[in-house]
Amino acid sequence: MVDITAALVQKLRVETGTGMMDCKKALIETDGDMEAAVDWLRTKGLASAAKKASRVASEGLVGVATAERGATVVEVNTETDFVARNESFQEYVRTVAALAVGHGNDVDALAQTAYPGGEGSVSEKATAMVSTIGENIQLRRCAGLTVESGIVASYIHGATTPELGRIGVLVALESTGDEAKLMALGKQIAMHVAAASPTALSVGDLDETVVERERNVLMEQARESGKPEEIIEKMVDGRMRKYYEEVVLLEQVFVVDGETKLAKVIENAAEDVGAPVQISGFVRFVLGDGIEKDVGDFAAEVAAQAAG
Length: 308
Description:
44% helix; alpha+beta; 2 domains; single chain; three-stranded antiparallel sheet; flat; Helicase, Ruva Protein, domain 3
């Protein structure tokens, strides 16, 4: 049997926001399997879906840049939000976003790209800035979208300066219709993506393992009602439809009007722009997403200092 340590219990507590005793019981019931423990807590109604973003505390900037038939988004991290207000750092992120065009998701290739002005590569420029700014600077990731015909719209939420902020979104619309109208629509959809945080474009794009896991949790929750299996199946089917409406872009209700599904918005847009429209992809970067900040025990630190 796995040793259920205080550290393991605390980790589950931070991830789910559930009480210590419930977390310990969940870990005992699942033999220390963290993922299974999260599901066990959810089945008992003691925790909602784990949202690691609530523990994210990385700083820096997300930047976007547009090009013909495409756009890119990058994330560059620093140790404090103070650096994000530094003009030299802002210019670095802006430049790196522009250099990212054509690199797709290959952050290593971007890091080796020559930085303008004969200052070495993107990576070497960051190293040089560390000595002047006084903080570690890390190019974390990049992504790009292109279209054969149509537009790629970009949006920055929490903008520090134009094209730099805390959330960056790209939305690609394939269409031969009016580009100005497509861009206006794309901006609105990008704002929706920033607010609604979809994880997939369509139901078919969802990870099958994630879908199966969600369905299993919902099945266990429904079985605790004591209803017959055929009723439980119908209950779970309804809850899965609700799940898709939460995480799938085309199934979500458009935040702009609060009533129309995105799939219908796209269908209706064809008449306005003069040609069929298709969302071919989207990217959403949230500053620090997936990075856990090491939060120490402040009281323990003070006690240790007091003890000399």
